[in-house]
């Protein structure tokens, strides 16, 4: 651990050698993907909704329709946004020591809604460019009506932690001699071959993707 | 939609043509993976924790160390367990109509802890066999101490919904003629080449994996 937890609730209680409060580590986990899960409390009950997110400096953003129940439910109230990348199955010599390699980040905070059109447009462009560099300028301009129909929430990455497991299984010493296969089965998220829209008649190339994901095919 | 929502909070409010309350649809989403996000309320605040899960009939299960803060925090209180598979980026002719293809399932409920050793062992075996068919019998038996150190939570899949988006972008009619590339960029979770533990000296083959995921390499 290279930094202290911002608050007690974000402090890792168990296996804290896997935890980090270092902003660089947290940012690296966030920047490696774009799918997160937002939790908020609605009528006393927890609700967890998947969302795409992006980061700009010290803030994390997510967006959707202005009519979205999640965006209206989360704005101005406490949320927990969690991002998890499953990197592998850790196959030990006993069931008990099976595990998973993963990188996760958890951010607590209270999101606020972006209001200015210029700020909203800037963030929409940043999101597009984070995933598909160069694409934003190829698209027709966003209309005022579309901007109004889009809600963007922003939240500072202040109260956050990362948790990471890497490496081989850790077995009981007397189990290492057992003949069962042991090691790591890597898991990754990959892009497949682009599938053009049947109504696409142009000659433009498919977009180049960022995010550090690997391409198959 | 082929079935009615069990309760009002699980009813999809927007784009409800993407929603389903059909158990077969929900089960198919759950059975296609093993990574979920559990949300619960702790001290009035939402907490979202990643976990591996499995399904047995009408119940969903997850587990971990008996010392786990998440398992102790979630037992006997309301949770929302959400599972999301990102299937593709939907690239439209405008920024506004960009979307994602995905399958998600959301389950509300109050989990309870499994108590009997026989029931716990049965579920641990089911979990292992769901991911790695044939592996459980290759492992040394689980000890009583390991079983005691493992907490398993179970929750009925009663109050649940699925939400699925598939297919090409839906653009504004006047935008289809624009020359920008449009279509779907598929995203999938893949297994990579197994990495044997450096202390593995046996001749056993790597496990065969289930879950319907594709294998790369």
Strand percentage of chain A: 35-45%
Number of domains of chain A: 1
Count interface residues per chain for the largest interface.
A-B, 94 and 94 residues
**Quick one: CATH class of chain A?**
Mainly Beta
Counting DSSP E segments of at least 2 residues, the number of strands of chain A comes to 12
- The helix/strand order of chain A is EHEEEHEEEHHEEEEE
- List unreliable stretches of 5+ residues of chain A: 213-217
Describe the structure.
2 copies of one chain form a homodimer. Chain A has 217 residues and is α+β, with helices and mostly antiparallel strands. Chain A has 4 helices and 12 strands; from the N terminus they run βαβββαβββααβββββ. Chain A has a single domain, classed as Roll (Pnp Oxidase, Chain A), CATH 2.30.110.10. Chain A has helices at 23-31, 69-74, 117-131, 144-148; strands at residues 19-20, 35-42, 45-56, 59-65, 79-91, 99-109, 112-113, 150-156, 159-165, 183-191, 195-196, 214-215. In chain A, strands 1, 2, 3, 4, 5, 6, 7, 8, 9, 10 and 12 form an 11-stranded mixed sheet that branches. In chain A, a hairpin with a 7-residue loop joins β5 (79-91) and β6. Chain A starts with 18 loop residues before the first strand and ends with a strand. Residues 213-217 of chain A have low confidence and may be disordered. β10 (183-191) of chain A pairs antiparallel with β10 of chain B.
């Amino acid at each position: 651990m290279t930094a202290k937890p911002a608050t007690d609730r974000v402090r890792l209680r168990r296996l804290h050698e896997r935890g980090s409060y270092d902003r660089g580590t947290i940012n690296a986990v966030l920047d490696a993907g774009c799918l997160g899960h937002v939790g908020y409390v609605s009528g006393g009950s927890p609700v967890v909704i998947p969302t795409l997110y992006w980061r700009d400096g010290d803030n994390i953003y997510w967006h959707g329709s202005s009519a979205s129940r999640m965006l209206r439910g989360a704005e101005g109230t406490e949320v927990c946004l969690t991002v998890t990348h499953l990197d592998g199955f850790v196959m030990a010599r006993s069931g008990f020591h099976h595990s998973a390699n993963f990188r996760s980040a958890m951010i607590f905070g209270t999101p606020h809604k972006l209001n200015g059109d210029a700020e909203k447009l800037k963030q929409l462009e940043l999101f597009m460019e984070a995933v598909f560099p160069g694409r934003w300028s190829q698209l027709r301009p966003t209309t005022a009506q579309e901007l109004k129909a889009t809600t963007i929430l922003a939240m500072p990455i202040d109260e956050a932690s990362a948790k990471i497991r890497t490496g081989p299984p850790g077995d009981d010493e007397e189990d290492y001699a057992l003949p069962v296969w042991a090691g790591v089965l890597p898991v990754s998220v990959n892009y497949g071959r682009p599938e053009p829209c049947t109504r696409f008649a142009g000659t433009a190339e498919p977009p180049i993707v960022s995010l550090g994901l690997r391409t198959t095919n």
